[in-house]
Amino acid sequence: MIKKKCNECGTLSPANHTGACKVCSENDWSTACEKHPDLNLGGASSCQMCESEQEIVKLKNKEKSWDDGLSRARLKLLGRLACFLMVLCAGGYFGYTHLKSLNVLKVTVSTEGGTPIKGATIKVNGTVSRSGTIVPTGNLKITISAKGYDEQTLLETLVIGKPLSLGVIKLKRSLGNVHVTSTHNIQ
Q: Can you give the pLDDT at residue 155?
């Protein structure tokens, strides 16, 4: 609050005071702030120190609200990150349990002597498959064949979560009739 200040004795009087000072009877006045009486304001109608202090308080409040907003933003980000990680972990767990419940065909096809047959065809319920393929559950008709070998059919029942391990399937050489025709005269 702005007051009149006696330049001789420093007494503060109301701003609308007229006449001489009540303490020293001098009539030499200037304006001063009640809060900052040592500051001579000359004829100013407001105190620059009070205005500066008010501006500092406003800036501190603004900084505090900015810090609060930043803290809220960090908490939101941290919360979203935590949710993402929980979903990722849950997805990994359920994906693992799902993959664990899948039925995988494990089979090796070889000759009776133990030599692996590379061109063997494996059909599960009429669908061509290979070792490592995921097969359905239930009753399966598995047909294994290769060129020059007898076809072999297996009937298996498969339950969820169990691999279908057929081990080594040994195919026998085909003993089918061979019919040879020729346009040459063979003697």
A: 87
Domain ranges of the chain: 2-46, 49-101, 102-171
Give pTM, 2 decimals.
0.39
Helix (H), strand (E) counts: the chain:
1, 11
pLDDT at 109 over 80: yes
Any idea which fold 102-171 has?
Answer: Immunoglobulin-like (2.60.40)
Residues whose CB is less than 8 angstroms from the CB of residue 55 and which lie 6 or more positions away in sequence, other chains included? none
Question: Is the Cβ–Cβ distance between 101 and 136 less than 8 Å?
Answer: no
Going by C-alpha positions, the residue among 44, 51, 47 that lies closest to residue 59 is 51
Instruction: Taking residues 84-103, report their average pLDDT.
Output: 70
